[in-house]
């Protein structure tokens, strides 16, 4: 009998709320997390994009000063989300063997602030001012390592790095660790703190970002005919994944089952998605197959939908090729319209949204959908949350990343 | 040249900033490793910050000799 991986804890820090309850309430209401970046470097470097979806609560409000000093913002955010998920799950160090407890966390970039601040220090003040914590702070596995130390997870602290698919790909790793019996509990998710002038300049140079500087809250508009790019976001999401047996033995609340996952690669172009969505559709099929889910059981998809002119349609084509006529019955939410695009953390935030949608039977809204692109005739949840059916249901969340990475999760109600 | 009392209080502030230890805990007879639980990475950060604060050079090979707060205060007093 296959071991089931169930979701027993959630944690988040996001542009629409510093914890899961606030984030979810805002996601149902329809709230934009985008606002002007009010720091001097925006003007100093004449950045073409002057806004982003920024955290509502800084991690330094939660962590102690000494803790924060030794962590890049990416790790700080990851730790804040992981602690909330851990507390939410009701687990403690006595209720799981450290050797059976693992971490699988994703990030797109890692410690970009630390790397570039240290480079500035080296150039302006010399090598003596490059602090000894520089290397452990900038490494992309920093969040996984910090979380493992925080909860004494000794069953492995893994990091997935696949651009904007990182957070979702981490859940593929986590599911395997549970299903193969290598771990009883895995904290999985993703973290990203890249609202820094360099990534902004880089993404803007490739024309990936919305330049709607005069109206940030209307900038992230997936599926709308006037979409002009994504809105950079930041934050972290964490999920406690547990074997069903372990969760039931301690009487834990089970929010959903992480039934299946699919990971594929396009091998097509370093940034552009395969226009036929072949890699994406294979990932969706793989997630359904590994979860033992029939496509017509799926009632809700939290789409990748970043609001770029070129990205949103191939995802539709991929979904259409899998779901065929059933696509009209699938309630699709594009929550990046609210949170912006959290890169390597986006899949984690969206997995949490999908879990809550399954648990509460409500799909969150897509904001800024004024004129739906006629070439993307999806059943998009907007205006108000959509009610999902009672009984056994399945839902999915898609993530795609530069490099042609496709990662999809499939959840079942419990 | 700074007097040893000023060096001690300046050093205590640096230790507090790096580790969160209360400044009163940073006393002359305390051993950085055994009493204050300061690891080698924090010690190097403290050394670099002390160099800047007191305008002295503390060579890397000297750091291992700075076992107690007294050792550090004496070195900085003599070097400044």
From TrEMBL, chain A:
Keywords: Acyltransferase, Fatty acid biosynthesis, Fatty acid metabolism, Lipid biosynthesis, Lipid metabolism, Transferase. Its EC number is 2.3.1.179. SUPFAM superfamilies: Thiolase-like. Pathway: Lipid metabolism; fatty acid biosynthesis. One of its GO terms (molecular function) is 3-oxoacyl-[acyl-carrier-protein] synthase activity. InterPro entries: 3-oxoacyl-ACP_synth-2, Beta-ketoacyl_synthase, Ketoacyl_synth_AS, Ketoacyl_synth_C, Ketoacyl_synth_N, PKS_Beta-ketoAc_synthase_dom, Thiolase-like. GO terms for cellular component: cytosol. It is an enzyme of class 2 (transferase). It comes from the Bacteria. One of its GO terms (biological process) is fatty acid biosynthetic process. Gene3D superfamilies: 3.40.47.10. The active site is at 164 (for beta-ketoacyl synthase activity). It catalyses: a fatty acyl-[ACP] + malonyl-[ACP] + H(+) = a 3-oxoacyl-[ACP] + holo-[ACP] + CO2; (9Z)-hexadecenoyl-[ACP] + malonyl-[ACP] + H(+) = 3-oxo-(11Z)-octadecenoyl-[ACP] + holo-[ACP] + CO2. It holds the Pfam family Ketoacyl-synt_C. Residues 2-413 form the Ketosynthase family 3 (KS3) domain. NCBIfam families: fabF, PRK07314.1. Belongs to the thiolase-like superfamily. Beta-ketoacyl-ACP synthases family. Involved in the type II fatty acid elongation cycle. Catalyzes the elongation of a wide range of acyl-ACP by the addition of two carbons from malonyl-ACP to an acyl acceptor. Can efficiently catalyze the conversion of palmitoleoyl-ACP (cis-hexadec-9-enoyl-ACP) to cis-vaccenoyl-ACP (cis-octadec-11-enoyl-ACP), an essential step in the thermal regulation of fatty acid composition. This is 3-oxoacyl-[acyl-carrier-protein] synthase 2. The lineage of its organism: Bacteria, Bacillati, Actinomycetota, Actinomycetes, Micrococcales.
TrEMBL record, chain B:
It is found in: Cytoplasm. GO terms for molecular function: acyl binding; acyl carrier activity. The modification O-(pantetheine 4'-phosphoryl)serine is found at residue 40. InterPro entries: ACP (IPR003231), ACP-like_sf (IPR036736), EAL_dom (IPR001633), PP-bd_ACP (IPR009081). GO terms for biological process: lipid A biosynthetic process. It comes from the Bacteria. GO terms for cellular component: cytosol; membrane. 4'-phosphopantetheine is transferred from CoA to a specific serine of apo-ACP by AcpS. This modification is essential for activity because fatty acids are bound in thioester linkage to the sulfhydryl of the prosthetic group. The keyword Cytoplasm applies. Keywords: Cytoplasm, Fatty acid biosynthesis, Fatty acid metabolism, Lipid biosynthesis, Lipid metabolism, Phosphopantetheine, Phosphoprotein. Residues 2-80 form the Carrier domain. Residues 1-80 form the EAL domain. Pathway: Lipid metabolism; fatty acid biosynthesis. Belongs to the acyl carrier protein (ACP) family. Carrier of the growing fatty acid chain in fatty acid biosynthesis. This is Acyl carrier protein. It comes from Enteractinococcus coprophilus.
């Amino acid at each position: 009998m296959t071991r089931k991986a169930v979701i027993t804890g959630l944690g988040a820090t996001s542009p629409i709320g510093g914890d899961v309850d606030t984030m979810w309430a805002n996601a149902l209401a329809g709230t934009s997390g985008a606002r002007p970046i009010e720091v001097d470097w925006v003007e100093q470097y004449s950045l073409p994009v002057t806004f982003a979806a920024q955290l509502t609560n800084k991690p330094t409000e939660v962590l102690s000063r000494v803790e924060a000093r030794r962590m890049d913002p990416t790790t700080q955010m990851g730790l804040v989300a992981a602690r909330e998920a851990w507390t939410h799950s009701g687990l403690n160090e006595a209720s799981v063997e450290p050797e059976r407890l693992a971490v699988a966390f994703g990030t797109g970039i890692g410690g970009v602030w630390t790397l570039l601040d240290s480079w500035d220090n080296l150039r302006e003040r010399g090598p003596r001012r490059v602090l000894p914590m520089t290397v452990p702070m900038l490494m992309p596995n920093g969040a996984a390592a910090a979380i493992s130390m925080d909860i004494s997870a000794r069953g492995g602290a893994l990091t997935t790095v696949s651009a904007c698919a990182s957070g979702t790909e981490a859940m593929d790793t986590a599911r395997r660790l549970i299903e193969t019996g290598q771990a009883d509990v895995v904290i999985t998710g993703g973290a990203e703190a890249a609202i820094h002038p360099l990534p902004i300049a880089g993404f803007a140079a490739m024309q990936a970002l919305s330049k709607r500087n005069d109206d940030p809250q209307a900038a992230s508009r997936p599926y709308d005919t006037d979409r002009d790019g994504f809105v950079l976001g930041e934050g972290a999401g964490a999920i406690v994944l547990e074997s069903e047996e372990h969760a039931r033995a301690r009487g834990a609340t089970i929010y959903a089952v992480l039934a299946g996952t699919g990971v594929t690669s396009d091998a097509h172009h370093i940034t552009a998605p395969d226009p036929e969505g072949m890699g994406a559709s294979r990932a969706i099929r793989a997630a359904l197959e590994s979860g033992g889910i029939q496509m017509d059981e799926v009632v809700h998809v939290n789409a990748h939908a970043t609001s770029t002119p070129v990205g949103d349609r191939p995802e539709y084509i991929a979904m259409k090729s899998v779901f065929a006529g059933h696509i009209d019955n699938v309630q699709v939410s594009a929550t990046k319209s609210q949170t912006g695009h959290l890169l390597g953390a986006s899949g984690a935030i969206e997995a949490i949204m999908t879990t809550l949608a399954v648990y509460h039977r409500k799909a969150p809204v897509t904001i800024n959908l004024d004129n739906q692109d006629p070439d993307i005739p999806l059943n998009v949840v907007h205006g108000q949350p959509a009610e999902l059916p009672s009984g056994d249901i399945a839902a999915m969340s898609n993530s795609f990343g530069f490099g042609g990475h496709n990662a999809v999760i499939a959840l079942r109600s419990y | 040249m700074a007097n040893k009392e000023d060096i001690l209080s300046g050093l205590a502030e640096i230790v507090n900033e790096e580790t969160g230890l209360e400044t009163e805990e940073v006393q002359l007879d305390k051993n950085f490793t055994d009493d204050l639980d300061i690891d080698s990475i924090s010690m190097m950060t403290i050394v670099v910050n002390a160099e800047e604060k007191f305008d002295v050079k503390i060579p890397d090979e000297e750091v291992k000799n700075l076992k107690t707060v007294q050792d550090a205060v004496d070195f900085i007093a003599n070097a400044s």
